[in-house]
Every structure is written in C-alpha cells, then in structure tokens.
Amino acid sequence: MTDRLPLMDPSDWTDGQRAVVSSDARAVTIYGSLRSGKTTALMARAIRCARDIDPEETVYVFANTGTGAETRRSMIASHDAAADIVVSTVTAIAAHILRRLGDDDWTLTHPEADQARVGRILEAMGYNDLSESPYDVWRELIVQAANGRDRTVPPSFPLTDEALAEVRTRYDATLDRTRTLDRARLVQRAVEHLERAGESPVRVSHILIDDAENLSPIEVLLLQALGPESVTAAVNPEACVMASLGADSTAVIDWFDSIDDHDRVWLAAAKHTTPILDAARRLIEEESSSSDRATSRGSDTLPEGRVEKFSAPSASAEQDRILGAMQERVEARDGGAVNVAVVAPNQSLRDEIADRCRDSDLAVEVLGRPWHGQETILDVLSYLFVLANPHDDPHLFRVINRPSRGIGRKTQARLREYAAGRDLSAWEAIDRARSEGALSSRARRVLGAFREMVEPLVQHARDASPADVARAVLSDTELLTPVTRGRTREQIEREERVEWFLQDLPASGDIDALRPFLDSIALGFSPTDRTAKIQIATLREVRDVTARLVFVFGLEEGRLPATHAVRRHAFIEQEKRRLAVAISRAESNTVLSWAKSRGTGRRQEPTTRSRFWDLLDPVPTCDGSWESGNDYRASLRTKQASSRASTRPTDEDAAAIEAGRRVEHPKLGAGTVQDVKMDGEKHVATVTFDDRGTKTLNLRYAPLTLLDA
Ligand SMILES: Nc1ncnc2c1ncn2[C@@H]1O[C@H](COP(=O)(O)OP(=O)(O)OP(=O)(O)O)[C@@H](O)[C@H]1O
After folding, report:
1. Residue 693 located in a structural domain
2. Where is ATP bound in this sequence (predicted)?
3. Which of 571, 595, 615, 687 could bridge 318 with an S-S bond, Cβ 3.0-4.6 Å?
C-alpha cells in the first residue's frame, strides 16, 4: 500500500480496518456498531481495488441516498488510482441501466408525490375518515408488497386485506397511466431487463456497499445480476433505518454467505467510548461488538461528545433556544465552518425550523430536498419533468397554474376526475375534453391554452440542452416576470439563486441529457454547491447527517415516535434506531428536546414526552453541570447566571442599544453600534467590532451587552 490515502493515515488504522483493506477474498463483510470506522475501511478498500485492477474496469461504491453518495465521493476525491471509482446509489444505477438499454419512456415519482397519490386513492375509495396520518403506513405496505414482502394488514388497521389489494391495484394503475415509476418498480424493471439480457450493459468489477443493512431484497438482486468479481459490504444490522422501504440486512448477508471465499471482519466499538455513542448504543442494545471477537480501536482521538436534554414550554420556545445556539455559533465562527445539524421528526417540523433559520438569515442546507423554499427553482424543475414526460401528473398539477393562469382548484379537481374516469393522464385528458366538448367551455379554454404553451417546449426539450430548455421555460411560462424598477432584496436574491441553478445544469446534449439529469434530481442528488454549514434533515435522512453539534427536537409521542409508529411494534423499533443514529451523528454534542405544547397559531395542544426520552439518561453537559431535562426555563436561568457569554440581551439592554453605543459580544469582542433598524419583524443592529469588522446582528439572539452603561 502507498501512504497516500486521503481518508486517514494508514498508520492510524485499527487492525480490523487493516484486515478489511488487505483482504484478497471475493467477499468481505465488515460488521461494526455505530461510528466503529466501517465507512473509513470500506472507502480505503475501494481505493485499493481501484489501484489493483485494469484501468478499463470500474469499481462501484453504493450508498443509500444521493447525499450519502456525494459525501463518500468527496472522501475519495483526491485519490490516485488507475481505475474509476463510481459512487452511486442502487436506484441510480437501475435508472442508468434502463436508459442505456433504450427503455426511457418514464420518469421517477417523488416519494412525497407517492404519498399524495395513495391519499387520493383512499379518498376516492371513500376512506376519508382514516385518522392519524395513515399515508406512511399505506405507502409502507404498498412498497413492501413491491419488494416481495407481502404482509397482511395489521389487526389495528381499519381496512381489510381485500381493500388493501384494491389500493395496490389502483396505485399500480396510476403508475402505468402516468408512465412513472417508483423506486421499487424502477429496480424491479432493471432486474427483469438484466435477467432477459443475461448480461449487464454496465461493466462492474468490484462492488462495495456501505450501510448495507438498508438494502431491500430487490436491490440485492440487482447487484447480484451485475455479476461483480468481488463484493464488500459494511453492515450494522441494528442500525437499519430504511426498514419501512422493505430493507434489512438479511438479503445481503445471505448473498455473501453463499460465496465460498468470504472474510468477515468485526470492527469493535472503541474501548474508549463517548457518552454520545454510549447513549446511542444503549438505545439500540447492539450485540455485534462483543469484546471476545473484537479488535479494539482503542483510540483516544475520538471526540468527547456529550448528550444534553432540555424541555421547553412551547414549540416556539424550543425553536428559539435552538436558533439562539446556532446564531451564536455562526457569529463565533465568523463565516467559517459552522457545522450544526438539526434533525426534525417530520417534514412539516423540518420546514418550520428551516423557515425560522432563513428568517434569521441563517443559510441552511435541507437534506433530501435541497431547493426547499426556493419555489421558482422547484417550479422550473417540475416543468422540466413535464417536458420529459407530459403524462407525469404530480409534476403537471404542480405547475398547471404557476404562474396563475386561471386554472383554479375546482378546474383541477374536475380535470383529475375526468382523467381518472377514462384512465387517461391529465395531459391526454385535456386533449380529449377539447375534442369531446367535455368540462365547461371556460375550463377547456384555459386548459387548452396551457397545453398549447407547453407543447412547443416539449418539442424544444427533445433537441436542446437542459440549461437551454430551463431558460426557455422561464421565459415562455413567465415564471420570473421581469421586474424593471424597484426590485426588492428578495427578488434580487431569488433571481440570483435561479441563475446559479441554471449555471449548474448540463449546457450541452438533448433529451438524453435531460432524462438522466431528472433521474438524479428524483433520486436526491443535488447539483448545487453546498456552502451552508447548517444541515436540516428529517429522521428519514438521518444517516446523511454529520456535524459537530446535532439538535434532535420534537421528542413527543406522535412525533417521535410518529403516530403511525405507535400502532406497530416494528415501527417503534425502527424509529428508535433512527433516533440512535441521529444521536451518534454528532462529533461533539447532541442536544435533545421536546416542547410541552405544539400547534399552529393559537391552537396550541399539550403534548406528551416521548417514550424514548427516559431511555436516554441525562449526562454531563459541557460545563460539567447536569440537566435533568425537566425545565427549560430553569436551565436557561442557570446558564445565564453561570455564563455571560451565553446570555441573550436583557430587554432593557436591547432597548438601549442604539447608534454610537459601545457594546460587547462574547465572541466578537467590543464594538460600536452604527445603526439599529427594523428589517421586517427583525430588530437588527449594524456593529463595527474593534477587531472583527462590521457585522449585522439580529438583536433577538445576539448576546450583546452595553459597555458604556
Ligand atoms: N482508526 C481510526 N482512528 C480514529 N478515528 C477513526 C478511525 N477510523 C475512523 N475514525 C473516525 O471515526 C468516525 C466514524 O468513522 P466511520 O464513519 O468510518 O464509521 P462508521 O462505522 O461507518 O459509522 P456509522 O455506521 O455510524 O455511519 C469518523 O469521524 C472517522 O474519521
């Protein structure tokens, strides 16, 4: 081995990691608990494979998600190897195989659109009264069926097996009608193609799979069908977080066990562990690191992490505290790496905290949905999906009235109904309604105008590059209405973001470039530059989170675990594993919290603390004090008393801060206030610090104290 491994100096590898890298077996399984060094060993082995083989051959590394693949790609970005290392997801390679084989008359559905689809089917079947957000459960059952895991409806479920079968049939019919595939069907179709062809159009020499416990059986079939020479998998069976998509470790373990030349390496949990890892491991009661078979990492380089807990009287108080802590870090790092992650129990709470961050001028990266909140970009993308496949109903309905062109909710509902009754996509239904004189004459007119606007764009998309097509969409649809005078700051920022997005799009090629680009979007890859250092994710994307400080909030019954999880034991175990993974993502501290009430506007409902809360004993906080997790206000008072640095300005101080006053910030030092003004609802001060330049600070959070009081 050379000593130029960018991942970590080989002299720091543990014996287990060394064994993984140097094994010559055809199959290698790396077992280990959370943070035991599996990914590091797997990526180092990938580099070794790429150095040892013919430059014509290719090494494939598989991660579970687009974001995960991007992180691993960056880990090996500067490696020196003869052969290519492609880092991807199994679904992405399935899409690639289908396109290479000329099977490309489809687009991928987005999981959120899938959920809405299941919801509409339930409503159409008259199950409007299914309470407790059942869509996830439905989707789960449907996807499990697609993965060959047919399970019967749990007893607490308000529907029979027959009704579920009907939902599945209707779900399949919508996919066919709209020429869309969900992820399970995409992989299934690639497997069928490979079985028929008997040979893969993609040449794969070595396959390395990270987080292999999250592979579904059908994904394992696809990897087998690729016929690799050697396979390596990193597995932690206790940390499977994608069970709801039919994943678990058995299929991959069975596959590897069937290979004669098979090395199994156990990476021990570090002897010198940290409270964070202890807490995470206690949650999932891991078994795989028993000391007799373990080789110790015994490293003292591991971070000294801590777990803190707090409760807040209300959801907004909980958010205030998280935001305050983030704001402090952002200011302290002065624009450098901040590296904070916030894990929300569900999408709506994720979006809420992301919006609060933006309101406080904190740049965030939303995992799994990088353009969250950037509506114009999401609209352009939806138009591109429609141009690649006009039958793609979910995307078509997103843009049919954007910008407003008189196709309101009622017209859309009538169009849906008309299309469903005739088994047509909405695109086909618009044409049929015109020829049959169906729907109202006004509806025919506005819908017809929409189709006439989109049709030339569909033609244009066949020959033009994705970047050109996106520009044509922007001008023809008038999504970005040109503003000649008096643009607001928001408008300028919006236009800038759209321009950056356009610059990231492929500038050459035709529909054959557009389709793979859209696949990568649907699969969660992001072409944008990730400069924000605050990651926001839901528990679903928790595997892709890594940060020094991780907040996991909303530990309340019905949220974490989610309501549907409460119904079935298996779901609860899964949620617990997600929480354990979330806790283990922090390199420094993890902060867990719950709010005693939550709701929208005035409708605040009392909540119940999560059943997981008490499983996590309080551990010492950074300053050595203990937080019982019982009272947020009491803990805040203690912190205020003990540390001036973490004190927010008192109301009197905040009111007295005005131009000319001398102030002090715990991290930025002393400075002079230049200006104080209201920016929307925010009270902002511009301060020139003696040593750190001029900064704009939100007075709600910035811990400024008056020096000349
Ligand atoms: N030999 C080592 N000595 C010290 N630190 C290490 C060693 N190997 C890995 N690490 C560090 O430990 C952390 C976890 O490593 P890694 O991501 O490889 O573990 P993992 O088992 O894949 O974790 P998980 O399954 O929880 O994602 C990383 O910060 C990594 O840099």
Report:
1. yes
2. 32-39
3. 595
